[in-house]
Specification:
This protein has no helices and 9 strands. By secondary structure, the protein is mainly β. The strands form 2 sheets. It has a 5-stranded antiparallel sheet with strand order 1-2-9-4-7, with no helix packed on it.
């Protein structure tokens, strides 16, 4: 048993991760960032939960770029094949659940 205080986690570089657990081929990590990631497609499904801060999630749907602002407590689900980019608005902490080895 371990308690993680997401607001206390700070990385030394953007998208630094604190591993929480792994079950099967799925990982759960807490990320800290203050910079956008990159446009990418995961090797499976992804669940992205904002723990602190605000993140603009851009994603492509039928070739069109769409955007949603995610606030604390909001969850973004990317189905397999969803191209997306996470753009924090300042510092953010995000819980990410995805297939091990995903980009």
């Amino acid at each position: 048993m371990k308690v993680y205080r997401s607001k206390a986690f700070t990385g030394s570089q953007a998208w630094e991760a604190q591993p929480i657990t792994q079950f099967g081929d799925t990982t759960v990590k807490l990320h800290w960032t203050d910079r956008p990631y990159k446009w990418h497609i995961n090797d499976g499904q992804e669940v992205f939960a904002v723990m602190d801060g605000c993140v603009e999630m851009q994603y492509k749907e039928n070739g069109e770029i769409k955007s949603k602002n995610l606030h604390v407590g909001d969850i973004f689900y990317a189905s397999e094949g969803t191209e997306h980019i996470a753009c924090p608005q300042g510092e953010a902490r995000i819980l990410v659940i995805e297939k091990q080895g995903s980009v």
